[in-house]
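Why does this matter for the project? Reviewers at the last site visit asked to see concrete outputs rather than summary tables. In response, this paragraph embeds two records directly. Each consists of the residue sequence and, immediately after it, the corresponding structure tokens. Nothing has been edited or filtered.
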Amino acid sequence: MNQLILKKITQNKHAYHEYFIEKKIESGISLLGWEVKSARSNMVTINNSYVSFYNKEAYICNSIFQSNVTQFYNETHNSVRVRKLLLKKNELLFLMEKVNQKGYTAIILDLYWKNSWIKVNIGLAKGKKKYDKRNIIHMHKWKKEKIRILKYMK
């Protein structure tokens, strides 16, 4: 049987702190050969990457694929180039409509292998205020304290 194999390449942990993630969409990504090699060696950074739209197509901006390939035939490897996302038409229209609303943005959450394909998780996000971040930190502290108290109660 064909088993589904998922292996994380990188994750944008900063996004979960800065944004409320309202919806996640899985997408393919168009990469060059040397970019796939750098993804195999985990030389990818997606911390500040986001999705932009141009001519009814979605592109990833600010993702960095570091080149570890020696350059042949005077090729230049642009590590910060804009990469095309492979989305279905209804997913693309949904994202474009939501991003045009005030306060929403589309950011990259994960980059991972799905069998032999590199996939991207796109998060439809709304920014957090400073007091939201403080409340979440207090809730996490309280959960840890509650577990500690219940452990000593038994």
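We now turn to the second protein, recorded in exactly the same manner.
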Amino acid sequence: MNLPPKVTDRAFERLAEINSGAARQQPLRVAVAGGGCSGFQYDIRMDDQADDDLVLEHDGQKVLVDPVSLPFLAGAVIDYSDELIGARFTIENPNATSSCGCGTSFSI
């Protein structure tokens, strides 16, 4: 059995900040697509919920993962990083055998 991805409190807090000024709350979608310099790449964006999405929810904030991406993200940790070089949602993926320097693409 594959473990579902986990979302950190820091990532949910940042999502709440993003949604605080919005007319409507919108979930964050974390998906995997083919491409990037390592074979697969993460697609992280605000999106609407589909019927078959896995929904990870905390304090009214939602992170969505589609069924095709779910096996690639099993056991992954979705976090938010705010460092001197930039701020972004990050993914620590135990399934990735290698990843690019920017952390947006990986291989399995």
